[in-house]
User: Fold these one by one.
Assistant:
Number 1:
Amino acid sequence: MDRPFTIMRGVTRAADAPRSVARGTIPRIWRFAAPYRSWLLAFLLLTTLTAVIGVLTPVLAGRVVNVIVKGGPDAARTAIALALAIAGLAVGEAVIGLGTRWFSSRVGEGLIVDLRTAVFTHVQRMPIAFFTRTRTGALVSRLNNDVIGAQSAITTTLASVLSNVIQLTLALAVMIGLAWQVTILALILLPIFVLPARRMGRRIADLRRDSADLNASMSTQMTERFSAAGATLVKLFGRPTQEAREFEVTALRVRDIGVRTAMVSRVFVTSLSLVSALAQALVYGLGGWLAVTGRIEAGTVVTLALLLTRLYTPMTALANARVDVMTALVAFERVFEVLDLEPMIREKPDARDVPAGPVGVRLRDVHFSYPTAEQVSLASLEDVAVLDQRAPGEVLHGIDLQVGAGELLALVGPSGAGKSTIASLVPRLYDVDSGAVELGGIDVRDLTAASVRGTVGVVTQDGHLFHDTIAANLRYAAPDATDAELREALVRARLGELLDSLPDGLATVVGERGYRLSGGERQRLTIARLLLAKPRVVILDEATAHLDSESEAAVQAALVEALVGRTAIVIAHRLSTIRAANRIAVIEAGRVVEQGTHAELLDAQGRYAALHRTQFADQEPEPLATVDACPILGCDHRHELPHGIR
């Protein structure tokens, strides 16, 4: 019954298959399969041999019957020889089947690896804007479902079409040659099955589409509710019972659709079997009459009956061949659709490394707008019919900023002013529209991506950690770091006591996004990772935001270690944390409205002074602690810093 089910799967795709694919898709597939062409040729050759054997066996079986009926002195020997030939064909078919499967797996699995690697590598090169717009599940689907669907275009669909065409042609030719009257009568019943089968296929396709949508809904619910943040939200708002009820309703609908699909599918298979049985009855009836009247041999009737299955199954499958082919091609097209998205940030062929030694940062008349949806995304990846056509406005307007090697520049201003955008331009997460961002006096667009990554380190508000061990998360920045170096970085990041308290030490798994650690511990772990990377330029984007006072003090102490001897750009809402900066820039609406030291900006009585008064209006003046900040700021005198920066 494997063949009827294969046909059924082809029929059920009828409702979903598009009418055409992009021009050039097929040649592109052939180019993509270039490394496997010799194996693919062997695979198709073996598939052809299997189809030929499928027709030869019934012919030999008919001859056995004829030999038995005719009798004679050599009948026994001939029958045994034919039986041995049938057995040999069976053994040959089994061996060829193993070979076919081996070549199929080598080609198919190789294509899966190549496609997945190509898509994964390409996606890694996409700008951050791509990930902010795209559904993660849609990307994962391209790497899983569409890649496997594309692979089936070569290893399943192509082989199926070739095998069915050969088998149908040979079977039809042999049957007509043996008894054209019986063949025509057998074919009369074919439309009775094929036409309703196509309608039934659309019904099954609709059911499967509904099931897929409901399963996707359940998957989304599980993904969101099973994450640490989602589970916390469910528990805080007291909805576990309601969540379970909603999930059960969806699961019950999936069950009902599954039952209906099973029954419709069974009707399909039963119909195929019934029509085949009726056709065989006609063959035996008419063929038997012709044999009895002496017009054909008895063995011919047996051959015709056996060939009938080699006729109905391929013909029904080929009736839906276009659907199968188009469905497989669409899978390839969806993979190519992602590969054709051009990365906005490219490394020049003659790019050079960041110069050795201390590195300063300069932004020269920078203008910047975030990319449009059309530049970085696909409607299918966003789950929308049409991409957002609105043009984003300019975010930064002529930014001029400079921080010398070993100095600290602080950026302050209201939310949405453009501070984080400025910070994202330095490591070249985006490229400017005009102007330049320079590291060591060289435009970042003229530098190699690897040297920029090795030069600039960033600590964000919510430093991301992978669901892995502490050691693995740290070695993401320094793959060759020893355990001793990891421990040293953790001690410098004020996590030494925590490490000593963990039974598994560096092998402790931090959980999804590091949720097994406190907020302060997560942040200090990202700082330890930064220390291992040893960047010459450090960017702190609200690194202490959302932390309690104790955690903030510990993180600030770790940050002092991270900033020693390095150029730094610090974004902060708490003005008390950046008083000792060499330069403070006030950013508003994408413009630098003020620059200077803490004292100079207070004396100027401008925007910074207003922000300072707002923050400290209801507070006593903060006690100051004198510390040697020169290693951080590159100065030759002592500064006063607020408590917490030690």
Note: The domain at 407-430+452-642 is CATH 3.40.50.300 (Rossmann fold).
Number 2:
Amino acid sequence: MKLLYLILTLGLSLVATAQNKISGTVSDKDNKPLSNVIVSIPEIHKETMTSESGNYTLNNLPTGNFKIVFSSIGFTSQTISVVISPQEITQNITLEESITHMDEVIVSTAFNKLQSQNVMKVEHQNVKALQQKGAATLIEGLATIPGVSQVSTGTSIGKPVIRGLSGNRVLVYTQGVRLENQQFGAEHGLGLNDAGVESVEVIKGPASLLYGSDALGGVLYFNPEKFANAGDFKADFSQRLFSNTLGSNTTLGLKTSSEHWKFLVRGSYNSHADYKIGDGDRVTNTRFNETDLKAGIGYNNSNFSSVLRYNFNKLNLGIPEEGIAEQSTSRNILYPKQGVDNHILSLHNTLYFKNSKLDADLGYIFNDRSEFEDSNVPVLHMKLKTFNYDVKYYLPKLGKIETIVGVQGMNQTNTNFGEELLIPDALTNDFGIFGTANYEWKSNVIQAGLRFDNRNVTTENHGTVGEEGYFQSIDKSFDSFNASLGYKTDLAKNFTMRLNIASGFRAPNLAELTSNGVHEGSNRYEIGNANLKNEQNLQTDLNLEYKSSHFELFVNGFYNHINDYIFISPNGNVIDGNNVYDYVQANARLYGGETGIHFHPHPLDWLHLYSSFETVIGEKDNGDHLPLIPANKWNNTFRGEFEVKNWWKEGFAAINIESTLAQNNAGEFETKTDDYTLINLSVGGKIILGKTNFNLNLNANNLFDKAYVSHLSRLKADGIPNIGRNIVFGINFMI
């Protein structure tokens, strides 16, 4: 808080006497005023909505050249450049009708462009839309995005997979800072709750240029909920119920803003019993309880803005070891179990100059992870403390060239307190420096960048030489240069092409460098390799998109070659009845893509057809298949949108047919997986009863109670199916 006080004091000292202002009216082509149009300046986190008469006003703006975005469902988003000065500016806008999705500003890429202007194809999904699909957890919702899957352990633990890469190869950002929560472990979940998360952006490919190590496979970038607009006070309450797990998710949020100050707080509680499979049995100890608290405070004036956010997440979950044993609907966690406390503190600051700006993101993450076998004394107890920083300077625009230079870094300590050690006490330091430029003319965009990174890992000696649990101290340094080059153009009217070539890297994690013991749940004795080198990849991506009034088509293709891919391999020895495996390296490749359509037939303007297909193949250079490669999937959704008089607005009803093909390309420790098809139904909308209005949705997932096993389920080895039929009821009140 002292740091926040100093920054806010600095900001107050910079307040200008002139209060820059822009206002105007938004209308359609017939000059009819449009209400509820979002008017935003993403660079400075300012946003408002048009009134019933189509009017808008944005006050307290910094001086300089900014892009203003006008967006509304059913209309084509429009972006204009405006030079903001002490003189009041009037800017009227006309929006054209369109059935395509509202164009979104992409925050996870360098220049915060609209998706239509972005050189890289980024998947953007509102969390509200994921919740409408009936997902019980955040990662379950993410797995519905083409190219994204999850490695799951029941319903409580899910790890993201992007085009066949997972674990430390996928980087997660939340509140503008990188999330560190011992994510190398297969039995560790994401550690995030969907309450208070506005949207997610998925970069499917190497993003080391902007994010450094561990972004070799891609990035999940979670955008927190926005503050209320100036002068508003908002409160909301939501409740979701899940039939399969007898689960409940309750959320309450409050937020208010003045012209300069902004506040919000949100609490959530999530509780589930053991999940039930198709034949009615429950999978013992897959139950979990989760408490989540998010809070934020922001301040801005015409020269400076600062946002401080805090997230506390407490997760207690069972570790399913007995399979289908004791049948219970209790939420009391059995042994063995995990307890995870996660604290995320982030501070985002921006200083505005006349023609440039400086962004500084600071983050502190404290992850306290315990594992209990048969008592409340943890046998495994690790505390991970991470401080990271990300400073970017946006140089003055030179003609049509935009340029960013920046530095990033991380200081991380891992300390053990339990009897067992999974990894040793360690200190990790990262430092990276980069530059990137964007050149735009007509419908063409070129973007390029270069980056250098260094990671230093130091560990302590532990244990007795020659015995299990012995860790020899290491002091290793990993360096990497990476580059990216992207090009976007319109090949014809409504037809866009994006071509990107980028390199990425991942330094070996502590488990790969230092392991010496039996890995839980695998019955393998794993031995680390202190001589491992960086994983280094080069990926080529091609995106083709066609959008017209009633038809959309996209085709994404990629080829990803990874030098020194890290994996485990048996060495032929046996220790205490367990086969011994070494961490080794070999070159590998992954390739495939996603394709899909959105058909909106005229004159059936209420009907939408979505269809997508995704595939990925992963193999070593010797032809052996890589593990944890998701099966091919074909997804079809028929969605109708409607209104019933004046009491049911924004209504929708949908049927989803999710067909997962057989996975016959099994990795070394895997078996083949049969195909399966799931049917999911959903219906919902906004209900208006007098002065009361609320959002309602009802889902029936796996409608026919299909017994199936996902190829990426960690319970597959025990023959345990995934979750059966799940009826989900959700309601949200704006208080």
Note: The two ends are 31 Å apart (CA to CA).
Number 3:
Amino acid sequence: MQPLTIIHKRNLFIYYSLFIFAIFFIALHLFDIVHLTHNYTLYIIVNVLLIGFLLYKKVHARIVQIFLILAWNILLIALTIESGQLLFVFSFLYLLLIVNVYQSHVINTLLAIITAVEIAFLVIYMQSNINITHPVESFIFLTSFLCIIGLLQTVYVKKLWSHEEKRNMEKQLELSSTEAYLKLFFDHAEDAMAVFDLNNKIIEVNAAFEKMYGWTKEECIGQSIQLVAPEYVEAAHNRFLKLLQGERFRLLETKDMRKDGSIFDAQISLAPIYNSYGDMLAVSVIARDISYLKENEKLALQSEKLKLAGEIAAGVAHEIRNPMTVVSGFIQMMNEDQQSPYQAYTGIIQSEIERIDLIISEFLVLSKPLAEQKSTLDLSEILQDIATFFELQLEQCQIQLIQHFNRNSLFIYANNNQIKQVFINIVKNAIEAIEKDGTITLICQNDERFAYIKISDTGEGIPQHLIDYVFEPFYTTKATGTGLGMMISNKIIREHGGVILIESEEHIGTTITIKIPLQN
């Protein structure tokens, strides 16, 4: 459908043609070439003024269009009947010519049919009333008029088309530039971008999408690919249905899935795409990997908890340890009396006091930064020392220790006591997780920058929903645990520039990986 602004411009052209046509025939009347009554002349003037008024008031372009065509037809029919000369029937052909400006097949076809009927009617009606006066002059004037109007129309149309072509070229250049900028933005954006059709199939993706999700453009186009974690599929489907209803989603946090099946935290924005008529064409998706942000938030929270635990530890060490030392001394004295009927109780009390002292000692590790007494250590020797340290206990518990690491030196820059404490904590936890006849595997690997120590056990494992709490203060699944061992181990490794990773499956076992930098 043509825009109303274009129809309005074409209405102006038709009106100017009508205006010139009216002046021309009024001139014929004044030169006595065509005889017109005053009523007819007045009719012509009123029609011209009325349509001019409609154009001036910017009445709807379609209504003005109908008025113009009707006015032309009535004017030509009345002129032919009034003059009594069939010669003016050729003026209908001129009307058909200028109406082509509308470039409408419907208008041209209807007007051609109506004109054929009008000419047939005029020929039949005027057969007995033909009154030809000044036939030569009329023919010359009419021919001249058609030639002049045709020439003016050609000049006007040429000028109009040149103007429109220039505007179209400018718009095309502007559109091309806009598309080029949008293409550059789309291709080089850091965020992953994708466009889906209304059937949830991919239309286009950018380079960042390929990098983030692992799918190439060739694999994606025309396909419906699962990009969310399995547990989020239903939620993603509901979001898509809401998108089709015109809703938008901004900075929504979810878990997406790469081609290899790995899950990552993502922040996505979704919005429908419309054309100029308001019809929905597609759906856009902009995604950002926020895994590192989540990790930073987790580390910040962990740091806050460590700080809080340290503050508590300082208070506990000051307020409890001194009086507990006094209590412990008296209990030891009472416990040395072999004749005391309370010796069994004092022994239990002494054991519990020692446990409290252990808790306070662990608290003290949290209450101050770790000592910077670092030196160059041979990691292989440390691991061998740990294996030797637990040899007797492993034999008593009927647990087999499997070692997979070479005896070549791997040097790290660390605090010897702290690093040993980490390995002792982890191996001790592994032993306690195995009821009997289990296996602990100790693996050490390395690359150019890091050493990777994996300690695996065949114990009961940790439920998936509890893994995130392992490094929490005071969290433990053991009846006699303090819940500080893994938290302290994590703090030690992090302050040595490393990281501890936990993988566990319930009733199968746990693998703890310690990643620590090698000495340059």
Note: The two ends are 74 Å apart (CA to CA).
